[in-house]
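#onboarding

Welcome to the new folks! Below is a worked example of what a typical request in this channel looks like: someone posts a single protein sequence, and someone else replies with the predicted structure as tokens. Don't worry about understanding the tokens yet, we'll cover that in week two.

Example request:
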Amino acid sequence: MPASPAGPDIENLIGLLAKLPGLGPRSARRAALALVKKRDVLLNPLAEALAVVGEKIRPCGTCGNIDVSDPCHICTAPARDASVICVVQEVGDLWALERAVAFKGRYHVLGGCLSALDGIRPEDLNIAGLIARARAPEISEIILAMNATVDGQTTAHYITDHLVEMDVKISRLAHGVPVGGELDYLDDGTISAAMASRRPF
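Example response:
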């Protein structure tokens, strides 16, 4: 095996970058080279930002979002509808909904989904916290924004079974044909969900 042209410190940086989602060894080498070449513009500010985030970031004790404050800025925002909770699997799902400006209520992050294959049980997720929040008298609706996978839907059914006795509306995101989608390019599951969720025209 040929010796690496980079020193051990740079190889360590490349190795760490390669552990990030979406970055393989080649992409990590390109990213490391860009950081080193643009030290003042990229590397130093990135190092400072990572240090700040590493020191200050924490999970929100209410919803599970990550922020520099606890409760997070979404849980404390007075303009948001405190009567509706949108349940998501991961923080990235919360961020996606916020980017879309599609929801103006509060969130609850489960931290994953139930999976017999991976050994993830209800007690491994933040389901108990959700059930406790749903009991609050001001809560009128729980939106289950789970991924359209077998595990995601299993998790949604499990949560529904534990909320059904409460005086709260339970809804889920619509599944089906996306805007601009052509039937010929959609998978069978999406088409089946769209047909099952059809509504009057």
